[in-house]
Amino acid sequence: MFRFPTIVLLLALVFKPSFADEPKSPNxxxxxxxxxxxxxxxxxxxFVHWGAYSQAGGEWNGETNHHEWxxxxxxxxxxxxxxxxxxxxxxxxxxDQWVKIAKxxxxxxxxxxxxxxxxxxxxxxxxxxxxxADVTQFNRDPLKELADACHKHGIRFCVYYSLGRDWExxxxxTGRGDKVGFRSNLIDYPNESEKDFSLYFERKVKPQVRELxxxxxxxxxxWFDTYGLITKEQSLELKSLxxxxxxxxxxxxxxxxxxxxxxxxxxxxxxxxSYDPWESCITMxxxxxxxxxxxxxxxxxxxxxSLVDIVSKGxxxxxxxxxxxxxxxPEPSVQRLAVIGDWMDVNGEAIYGCGPTPFGEExxxxxxxxxxxxxxxxxxxxxxxxxxxxxxIHLFEWPAGELSLPAIPGxxxxxxxxxxxxxxSLEVNSIGDRMTIRLPxxxxxxxxxxxxxxxxx
Length: 457
Description:
By secondary structure, the chain is of the alpha/beta class. The protein has helices spanning 6-15, 28-42, 70-73, 78-85, 95-104, 132-135, 142-153, 197-215, 232-245, 300-312, 331-347, and strands at 44-48, 109-115, 156-162, 221-225, 250-251, 263-266, 278-282, 316-321, 365-368, 374-377, 382-387, 390-395, 402-406, 412-417, 428-431, 434-438, 450-455. It is 28% helix and 19% strand. Helix 10 (300-312) links the parallel strand 7 and strand 8 (316-321). Helix 5 crosses helix 7 (142-153), helix 5 (95-104) crosses helix 11 (331-347) and helix 8 runs parallel beside helix 9. The two termini are 26 Å apart.
């Protein structure tokens, strides 16, 4: 748990070294700080899982729980899957509309699947004919259109790339030890011992990464997935290639061997915070790719809570959408993003550019139950984010009468609820090691009100 005065916390957040395992030059730390600054400030991004699999809507031969892993989970041979991919023709795709949806939600960057585990590239790849240009009748480059729209609207354009899995390539083993064949394409390429990852790495990975970094303008993040059996030498070579082509491009940890610029948590929010940069990627329902049968949507308030919880721990929130085979972001996603955007319009200053909490107590304590499983108990019904001279208290519950907090270093000069009358200050009192804030009788109407504490210099 961290518990520091605000100034110390913010200095630590800014100057904490990267965990990247690479030779250090005198300027490495300065370069890394500059490279990561936009990411630390952005806090909120859109993840897009979209590909030929979206055409199926999660259904194959009557089974309705498939997703972006369709080729593997439905046990579809490559030739049949490629034939199916020919039907992918997203004529309703509108890159400008997608980016506006993200921007209106308060998102600052967008990560799109350029190639998922099926090996199907969502752009015209000179190094592979297993792509949207060569297989389908869709005579457009969706990545180029998205890149242009992002650059136009001030959103960082980023690309996902499946690194250690590719079910189209004959040389991608994905399991080792007692997991030989684990999540490999064993229908078309059953002999794992004959596969040579280095051939795939040279034939497809390096050329396609070069294509992405030279054909679409500035790339904010190379978002790798499933590094699999890549060697440390190959990860270093790939990182060097990225740094050569786009020195300011960020690399997530799934390039392998602890060589990334930031860590990733998938479908969960860690119990503890960290000064090192990190990101939680989470779905709106139960699937990454489009599944027409999945109506188990999270509420907008639940997703705002996740955003606040993540930022209070020093992380970024990458929230996923799964567009349809026609190229449309599902309406339930659009509606929820609009609500989040309304909340961000009022409370965005308590998210963007904010550091983690100065109150360790709010994160709760990790304990082990009888089965040995770790869980968190004692979480406070509020979270806190920080900026120089300010602490923001996000109220998950509206306390009756007053809010009690741990005391903070220094004096509170002013306290206001964001989005309410700018002249209406709240009464703040310090008693020993606690601080109380007198609250209005009526709770503001929007989800999760935020109190801004302005600290005296």
